[in-house]
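Loading example: each entry is read as two labelled lines plus one structure line.
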Amino acid sequence: MKKRRHRPSALKTYFLYGLVITVLLMIIITTVGRSHFNVPQKFGMDVVGKGQYVVTRMVDGISHVWDSYIALTHVRHENQVLRDELDRAINTNQEYREAMAENMRLHKLLQVKESIKPPTLTAKIIGRDPSLWFRTLTIDRGTSDGLEKGMPVITVEGVVGQILETSRTISKVLLAHDPNSAVNALIQKNRVQGIVKGEGRPAYNMHYILKNADVEEGDLIVTSGMGGSFPKGIPVGTVATVTKSKRGMFQKITVTPAVNFSQLEYLIVILQQDSLTD
Amino acid sequence: MPCAPFILVATLLLILQTSFFPGLPGWFAKIDPLFVLVVFVSVRLDPYRGALLVIYIGMLTDIFSGIYSGLHPVTYLALHFMIKLLSRPLVLNEPPHQIPLVLASYIFVMGLTHMITTLLSPEAISLWSWKEIIVRLLLLALITMPLFSLYDYIMNRLSPKKALQILIKPGNKNRFRDDF
């Protein structure tokens, strides 16, 4: 039987690939489970983040044009002169409404920003986590704007999450409904404290509430200010269900988030120096 | 080397998947062409180049998805070598195998990811949702064959060797040569 022999150049190529893969594997193995990004990852985040920013702006522009087109389909059967006039009127009206809505949204943001003691920063969402298991998103602010890991992120409605990773211009936010997220919170009416944890789906579980505590559906849950991460009194959600099982000391409480995570657009980052996660 | 165009394609797909697709209505937001690319690379490229490329895709995905570094490269690399092992006894290159292969690969990667995240943070176990997974599998089944054709086209037409050939276009071509 004839034995196949590798030529020296082929062996050299295999050796080169083997070496590169081994080095990469070593890098991966040393980074598995690590919660800090290294320099290449931060660089990648900056580069791809720029791409995300451009695509987001383009999508905004296209969706604006598309919305205008949809609005125009209602007046297709009108005569040409009236349609032209109507086009202009609808466009103007839509722009006006959009401007009004944006104005109101920014006004609310400004009100919230002014009502919070530490300095705050407004950020725009430029990317969302496509995976099934994790709930994160990317915003257009980074360390150059003063952002640090662990800083709380909120919106007009309430708690959104915390900064998970930062690069120079981009940051990644861990949303509050991710299973790895936990927020110190209290029930507003009786000040009973617990921990609100994410469930993966748009809902929370509130843990460590004793069975003798008075909790009802519709009770408001706000941040407790404990732990130094979130300021006190920011809405987290409302109690959806309360279950008292025969076993155990605690009640099982599910909470409906105050924030609609699928409709987030602008966020407020609270620039706090001290963070528990560091 | 056919890796180069796919590095660009993977980066572009990640940008689209994190910024454009989430804005699409309903199920379309969950389309995952990057995963189809991972399977394509594992099927079509040789083990070494394929491994390099899936590691790159994994590392890139790690930055914008999930909270653990190294999770995606590990799962993609495991998938890559599993496909390479299976491709010896089975003819995975054939079109009829593409959809079942992508779907089985997706379930494998989902299972592995769930297992690793459970080990890394046992106090925060993600709920296994068959409903969500089936929706994503259906979408993958729809896009697999067109994307395989597209990636094949990219591999055949846009590899640096081919691109160079297109650019140079030798005038006096020997038609008896069959090295392309």
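Chain A has three helices and twelve strands.
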